């Protein structure tokens, strides 16, 4: 059983990170900003023809060979000077940490409280920062005052856009930059419909299957493959400590659902939750550096009965907790009734709201029903209150929605929520494929992102079935990167297509190495190729294993084009007799086996 003694440094083996890129052709590079401490990382894919392709990169310092990773020290505090130079924050004593923060009630910890955390996480003495005298220190507040912060300049360079455009989008509430003043390690990213579509990967332990080091490892693993943000959904023991390790080592914004930890503090009994316990948990997490928080404040008492005749009721964990509380007390949701105070707390740390969709549909049958859209109305109202108070806001969305009902979600959200960034969970477009829900949801994610969703919460193949392992995390991230990039292309995001063009050129010119290295997942591309053509020369050969050397359509059309100009055909060109004979033979071979594209398996 875990006790505090288990966390004394001598025995502490917590934490490991995935370092280095999956291929040596990827190199970490930086774009210089207007000041020496503003360097924006990107990934340079070096090609065999001497050219290179710059790609957005979320992997943090871990992929910089000049950086020596040490998870016990944490990442460099990139934003520390930016935050302090604004002159509007103060260090303060902070909330007394308590054993129950880590779900440990009855063990008296050495040293009396989690100041002990300095032993648990050796990296940095922690006196938290907050806005001086309750000052608004949010990116929204600065944007409204016409200030372009280093964070805004950073995301502008990262996305290839003008800093003034970034400031304006943030000021209107159409984009958010989730950056807590207590998470100086974060490389700022922007979430908004006019920027690259972002993806979130969820990690989090459960009492039985996962440890702190596994969670830190999952975080670095997910960002290495392209997760733009990570949500720590830990429950059970060591929540506080796990989160500390993740935050101090995370180059991407970290989100949480504070309600989960609040519930642990009352031993899992929803009816015993209170505003006081919740408020205390929020402050604890604000001081640690959580960048955005899911808050299920739209689950109103009067909406709960609307779910009674649903096929799958309330599927949101946070939503069901709040519904249970509302029914037990027959009172209005305390997150709703205390929302303004909540805003005032989040504003002094610059924590971004992710207003939770506690009544999202959990089945195709329940999509777009009254309960779902009633809650959306309330989320719109709360979003306005938050922005009036300078707090950045995203709105969470579904869920399970068939394709023909997806667009209505986006249209309504835009209208009701004043274009605040939409952050959706898929949606899953059918219920019939457990084991493949990264795909059922990847379809919906691509569609809703095309129509304007700013961030997609990934779904792994283990959805509905179990906890994702390392491979599932990678599969979920890659699937969602595909959905996000497909949407970037469809939306015509400037520069999105250059990546596709580079890969297509490599494919057409048989630069196999370049084709692998430009892939979202070079390892899998290379492995699949090598399964049938493992030899080294095959990687420069002008054919793949599908058609063989002579009859490759890409090779033939390239040759025709070279010799006879664009638009010429093999016959017009008097194309080499050998090839024509070969093609004739191939055609006969194809007819002989019944003109079937797929052959039955031998045996
Ligand atoms: C995203 C959009 N809608 C829901 N999500 C995510 O679902 C949310 O951000 C969090 O990561 C996860 C937990 O949701 P519930 O089940 O507590 O609502
Ligand atoms: Fe589901």
Identify every distinct bound molecule in the structure, by name, code or SMILES.
Answer: 1-(5-O-phosphono-beta-D-ribofuranosyl)-1H-imidazole, fe (ii) ion
DSSP summary, beta strand count: 15
The computed structural class is alpha/beta
Biggest beta-sheet profile = 8 strands, parallel, barrel
Q: Give the distance, in angstroms, between the N- and C-terminal Cα atoms.
A: 53 Å
Shape: globular
Helices, by number, come to 21
Strand order of the largest sheet: 8-9-10-11-12-13-14-15
Q: Give the percentage of residues in beta strands.
A: 5-15%
Quaternary state of this entry equals single chain
EC number: 4.1.99.17
Function: Catalyzes the synthesis of the hydroxymethylpyrimidine phosphate (HMP-P) moiety of thiamine from aminoimidazole ribotide (AIR) in a radical S-adenosyl-L-methionine (SAM)-dependent reaction.
Biased composition (Basic and acidic residues): 93-105
Binding site for Zn(2+): 400, 464
Write up this protein.
The protein is α/β, with parallel strands linked by helices and 603 residues long. Helix content is 38%, strand content 10%. An eight-stranded parallel barrel has the order 8-9-10-11-12-13-14-15, surrounded by six helices. Strands 1-2-3 form a three-stranded antiparallel β-sheet. Strands 4-5 form a two-stranded antiparallel ribbon. Bound molecules: 1-(5-O-phosphono-beta-D-ribofuranosyl)-1H-imidazole and fe (ii) ion. Fe (ii) ion binds next to loops.
